[in-house]
Amino acid sequence: GDSVTQMEGPVTLSEEAFLTINCTYTATGYPSLFWYVQYPGEGLQLLLKATKADDKGSNKGFEATYRKETTSFHLEKGSVQVSDSAVYFCALRRYGSSNTGKLIFGQGTTLQVKP
Amino acid sequence: NAGVTQTPKFQVLKTGQSMTLQCAQDMNHNSMYWYRQDPGMGLRLIYYSASEGTTDKGEVPNGYNVSRLNKREFSLRLESAAPSQTSVYFCASSENWGGQETQYFGPGTRLLVL
Question: What whole-number distance in Å separates Cα of residue A79 and Cα of residue A76?
């Protein structure tokens, strides 16, 4: 079945460091890929998405590129801030079947940014 | 602009008790979802409602029931709570099922079953 695997956390960085959170997926067909962010005490918010191979999603300084050849969608940011401390979820949604509306989530990666 | 609201925020139950988690959205969305979030496992879909009047099982439906009361409201019921149902529950909605639409999430309900 479809699945998403993220790197283990927590990831602890100093402010202004470079961030990479790895995400790989297994799916048949051509899924859309998403990154959601969950700030402490809040629900999930869509951070960015990509709907086809080689698409780059970007938002708030975060970027991720849909790599079909490596089945990956790694999240990157050039300079993190304390306010980026949150849990980040990679997810996929597959189209073209009866399951088209369902999101499949990875286990989440906690990011802690220290001043 | 409330978006997706959930009540209660936190609940403690004893094994065997029942309760209903409430969810409402004010975005005129057709589709609504219930997820549970457990440590190290991400979010898993419990039930969803693709449109008003329909509900379907997700990945982990056992022990739960749902009701799509109207277009705005989608409730999740635990008839006989078990410790394995201790989790954080999220409701979400999207404009439609199966398209490119974003799912919008509520703030969650933290449930502890003793």
Answer: 9
Interface test with B, best of A7, A8, A42, A44 (most B CBs within 10 A): A44
CA B100 to chain centre: 21
Give the three-state DSSP class for A60. coil
Residues of A in contact with B92 (CB under 8 A): 43-44
| Chain A nearest-CA residue for B10 | A41
Min Cα separation A18/chain B (Å): 24
Q: Distances in Å between the alpha carbon of B62 and those of A99, B56, B82?
A: 19, 12, 11
Of A43, A46, A107, which is closest to B102 when you measure between CB atoms?
A46
Q: Between vectors from CA A51 to CA A16 and to CA A66, what angle results, nearest 5°?
A: 50
Helix or strand run (H / E) with residue A64: strand A62-65
**pLDDT tens digits in sequence order for chain B, 114 residues long:** 679 999 999 999 999 999 999 999 999 999 999 999 998 788 999 999 988 999 999 889 999 999 999 999 999 999 999 999 999 999 999 987 766 678 899 999 999 999
Answer positive or negative: Cα dihedral of A73, A74, A79, A84.
positive
Per DSSP, the residues of A18-57 read -EEE-EEEE-SS--EEEEEEE-TTS-EEEEEEE-STT-EE
